[in-house]
Design goal:
By secondary structure, the chain is mostly helical. Helix content is 45%, strand content 7%.
């Protein structure tokens, strides 16, 4: 190297490490992007102060003379007075140790000098003007290093780099020799790319920005230009928004890229919202049920400002993304099921959408650029915000309609939780077990996986008068239940729910009372064409009254066709049964003809829940039904006594009730006057009028009709208490853990084998049970239930909640059901 003139200082960068060079060039100029670590730069004497940062000293040029380099160097000598105006320093050519990257090595320590960290975006802070850059838009082309780019939508320059996206045509581009191209830094910039990286980027641009990318950073560089054009220059909004939409569709897998582009899109549209029309909204937001929070609230503002109702798709996006609504991973695990269920519930509650709401609030809309150039230009690290924030009016999310919307969302989550948990065990396949857990609203749209099997089963048993009479064992065998004298309550429920899932009602439904079917029980299958016409709770009261009345009528071993018809009509009318329920009642009648009801069993069932006054009211009601035909034969008296005894009515009161009924009956046979054997004058006695076999006591009927509502209420109370008792037997009451023991202390005592940060995310009431579970690799269903009861927990709720926690925190379910056992899926 030539000796510099007097008063100048030579500085050999060989005395700096690569990290120090990286820091130096970043501190003083963004132009040293291509740098030879063995090259020599000659700069002003102030370098000594820079070297002091690293504990280095400069050496005179005489110590680094190299006659071979003198002829080849093109080093510029820069005076001390001119250092503040440095724009670019020529690179010393020719070296085998040229650095291919601008990133520091792993041992570099972050140093902040004059307010700048080396991990800030490596961009200078010039006056942000367009000088030196040219925008190339749609309908134009540009050629860069043998690449022709059509409709480029980008900035270019000859040798200036004022923006991270700007393509400097003077920079070297080189086709990589192999696929081993260095990775891009976090804030990639075109001027900072290696020649091989520039080749990859230009190749992508020249192919219409349609090829797959192994690094999303290349798409970011392109986006920086779009961002600058729209945010700073406020031009080409429509073209840029269309391109952003295209990029979002093309590269959907990068959360970071999607987040930045959606924020940009929301801000630009928010700033132009008043001028938007329906066509614009459809153009920029083709899918309203898959929006981020900002886009959702911007559109809500537009709809609200234009007096438009909010439809289900937009409200779904709001529920899914807004912090005011409950968060759930179902949006990722089973988005289709959640979308379908939400739509149905929303349209049921808001058939015309959410209408105009007078209450409103302001939604703040700020924008933080993705481009490192705009970030540093705006001084974001110092808290400045040079991009004007927006504020848009939206209807108040605390208003009644949105409170209803929040409830709809919560209901959807609660109804789908068990479905999603079961789906995780079936690899997403909808099995019979999964289908049975689906909300009814979804069963109408999703075919049962065993529908063909059921159709074949039904086709061999054609209905008679609207019902199919068969044994419980027929259905149990079809769904794989092994023969046993009495089914378990769970198996009985499966039999009933399976029939229901295929659109058939099973009568009688033993699960209502919490009892189980016997293997050879007779039942009736009745097709229910529409789910909304299925049997109601009211039918259960009617069916029970019908059973008792039929049992009493059959006590003389004969129930005439006339009696059956009248009893059927009476119950149907008094309990206001719908057509499906009337068909079910006919099916029940057929079952009772084959298997008469056990009156004492029914009486005992009711006795548990009725007060003495309610028992008397029910007894009078049954007596009134018996007297409707003006008869009260001995067999019926005996049957009623059996019911009264089962109801535990006091014997004295029971006798009084029977006497009252005897007094109320019409004599069975009219008095017959015998003819005189002699011939006497006078009128002839008319012949005896023949009494119809079955006549109705109209006065008694009127009284019975008035009592029906009271009996309905009594029986409804019985069914409600039965269901509560079933739940209590299955799921014991949960006791709140002792709060006097600190949570940290409990965790230490339990010593659970999970990452410490995951344990607090599980409801504390499950910790002790989880500790016991983790003592073994598997346990039986009975043992699991026993553990739940030991800790005063609900077995099914514990199973589902622990698995939900494990899936979210550990990445997989902890408990797996395998036949009659539960496997603990965790390697300690």
């Amino acid at each position: 190297m030539d000796v510099p003139e007097e008063g100048k200082t030579c500085f050999d960068f060989k005395i700096l490490s690569h990290r120090e060079i990286f820091y130096y060039r970043k501190l003083f100029s963004n132009k040293f992007y291509r740098f030879n670590t063995n090259g020599e730069f000659v700069m002003a004497g102030f370098i000594d102060s820079v070297l002091g940062l690293f504990g280095k000293k400069s050496e005179s040029s005489s110590q680094h003379k190299d006659s071979t380099s003198t002829e080849k160097s093109s080093t510029k000598i820069i005076s001390e007075e001119d250092y503040s105006n440095i724009q670019i320093v020529d690179q010393v050519p020719g070296s085998q140790n040229i650095s291919k990257t601008d990133e520091p090595d792993d041992q570099y320590q972050s140093i902040t000098v004059h307010g700048h960290s080396i991990y800030d975006p490596p961009v200078s802070v010039p006056s942000y003007a367009t000088s030196g850059m040219t925008w190339v838009g749609n309908g134009q082309s540009i050629s860069v290093q043998r690449f022709t780019i059509h409709n480029p939508l980008m900035y270019w320059s000859n040798n200036n780099y004022p923006d991270a996206s700007c393509i400097a045509t003077s920079l070297k581009v080189e086709k990589p020799e192999n696929t081993n191209v260095p990775s891009l830094p976090y804030w990639p910039q075109y001027s900072g790319l290696t020649p091989a990286q520039r080749w990859k980027y230009l190749s992508w641009l020249s192919q219409g920005r349609n090829n797959d990318l192994d690094e999303i950073g290349y798409a970011f560089i392109f986006f920086y230009g779009l961002e600058r054009r729209a945010i700073i220059e406020k031009k080409d909004f429509d073209i840029i928004l269309d391109e952003v939409n295209r990029l979002l569709l093309k590269y959907p897998t990068s959360n970071s890229f999607n987040s930045y582009l959606n924020q940009f899109k929301a801000y630009i549209i928010g700033s132009q919202l008043k001028g938007m029309n329906d066509e614009d909204i459809r153009r920029y937001f083709p899918s309203l049920d898959n929006l981020d929070e900002r886009s959702t609230k911007i559109l809500i503002s537009w709809f609200w400002s234009n007096n438009r109702s909010l439809q289900w798709k937009l409200c779904y996006s709001l529920s899914k993304n807004s912090p005011e609504f409950q968060k759930t991973n179902i949006t990722k695990k089973s988005p289709d099921l959640l979308t379908q269920l939400f739509r149905k519930k929303f349209q049921q509650n808001f058939p015309d959408g959410i209408q105009f709401i007078s209450e409103f609030e302001q939604f703040p809309l700020n924008y933080r650029p993705a481009s490192p150039s705009l970030l540093q230009y705006g001084g974001y690290s110092q808290g400045s915000n040079f991009i004007e924030p927006l504020s848009l009016p939206i209807p108040s999310l605390s208003s009644p309609p949105f409170q209803t919307l929040k409830k709809i969302w919560i209901d959807c989550i609660d109804e789908l939780k068990p479905v999603v948990n079961k789906l995780n065990k079936t690899d997403g396949s909808i099995t019979r077990e999964v289908y049975s857990l689906l909300p009814d609203a979804l069963k109408d749209d999703i075919s049962h996986p065993e529908l063909e099997l059921w159709r074949n089963f039904i086709s061999s048993r054609p209905p008679v008068d609207g019902s199919i009479i068969l044994q419980v064992s027929d259905i149990a065998h079809l769904i794989g239940i092994e023969k046993r004298n009495v089914l378990t309550s769970s198996q009985s429920k499966t039999v009933t729910s399976t029939a229901s899932d295929f659109g058939w009602a099973l009568v009688p439904d033993q699960t209502i009372s919490g009892t189980s079917y016997k293997w050879d029980d007779t039942v009736a299958l009745i097709p229910i064409e529409e789910r909304e016409k299925s049997v109601s709770e009211n039918f259960q009261s009617a069916a029970l009254i019908f059973e008792m009345a039929h049992g009493i009528a059959a006590s003389d071993e004969t129930v005439t066709e006339t009696e059956e018809k009248y009893l059927h009509n009476f119950v149907s009318e008094q309990f206001s049964l719908n057509p499906s329920e009337i068909t079910c009642l006919k099916g029940l009648q057929k079952v009772l003809e084959i298997s008469p009801p056990a009156l004492s069993k029914i009486g005992k069932r009711l006795s548990k829940y009725l007060s003495p006054d309610q028992k008397i009211a029910l007894a009078n009601f049954l007596g009134d039904i018996v007297l409707l035909d003006n008869k009260f034969v001995k067999e019926e008296q005996k049957a009623l006594k059996t019911v009264f005894k089962a109801l535990e009515i006091n014997p004295t009161v029971s006798e009084e009730l029977i006497k009252k009924l005897l007094i109320g009956q019409t004599p069975e046979k009219p008095v017959t006057v015998l003819k005189s054997e002699g011939i006497r004058s006078g009128e002839i006695i008319p012949p005896r009028e023949i009494t119809p076999e079955f006549t109705i006591n109209r006065e008694k009927l009127k009284q019975t009709m008035e009592d029906t509502r009271a009996v309905q209420n009594i029986l409804a109370s019985v069914f409600e208490q039965e269901q509560e008792e079933i739940i209590q037997n299955m799921e014991p009451e949960v006791k709140i853990p002792d709060a006097s023991i600190p949570i940290d202390g409990r965790l230490k005592e339990l010593d659970l084998p999970f990452p410490s940060e995951t344990i607090p995310m599980l409801d504390i009431k499950y910790l002790s049970m989880l500790h016991d579970i983790m003592k073994s690799n598997e346990l039986s269903q009975d043992d699991f239930t026993g553990l739940a009861r030991k800790h005063n927990l609900m077995p099914r709720a514990a199973f589902d909640d622990i698995n939900t926690w494990a899936d979210e925190e550990l990445g997989d379910f902890l408990l797996e059901e395998s036949e009659s056992r539960i496997i603990v899926n965790y390697k300690k």
